[in-house]
Amino acid sequence: MAGTVGGRTLAVPPRGTRPTSERVREAIFSRLEHLDVLEGARVLDLYAGSGALGLEAASRGATEVVLVDSSRRAADVARKNVAALGMGRTVRVVADAAERFAAQAGGGPWDLVLLDPPYDLTDAQLATVLESLAAPGVLGADAVVVVERSTRSPEPGWPAGLAAFARKDYGETAVHYAEPADPGA
């Protein structure tokens, strides 16, 4: 971890998650800082696992972070990490399916949405979540959506309302960046 809690180690669920490597996490947050997205941001971390990405956002200036994971075990680990880092006033953990949470608009508008789903998540399942995020009022005008996938997976199927603006590969990991777009464009 970097930011205000730099050097701290997080607990990880015993199985069922694939934590983002430190190298990839640092690259993502370097880009997000360059884009000036983090300071004061409302952040949604879907498929949160241990909460590492959302907690990193909180440590770098986000004012509200919601960690969502369907696994109760992962949500419990994320809660322990939130407590251990003293971030309970900024970070909330929700045990729910990303698809369901995103479909309910989940309290937007969000400035940053982080998606690090399991590599075996189908393209159709990811497309459903992205479609929900592209709905009116879910994202702020200058929001950034970050999707982490395997380099063997195709680029996410971006729905109308989201436009890809970058992709960066790190070994087996591909990081895709998108922003709100005029659905009629």
From TrEMBL:
Keywords: Methyltransferase, Transferase. GO terms for biological process: methylation. One of its GO terms (molecular function) is methyltransferase activity. It comes from the Bacteria. The keyword Signal does not apply. The keyword Endoplasmic reticulum does not apply. InterPro entries: RNA_MeTrfase_RsmD (IPR004398), SAM-dependent_MTases_sf (IPR029063). PANTHER family: METHYLTRANSFERASE. This is Methyltransferase. The lineage of its organism: Bacteria, Bacillati, Actinomycetota, Actinomycetes, Micrococcales.
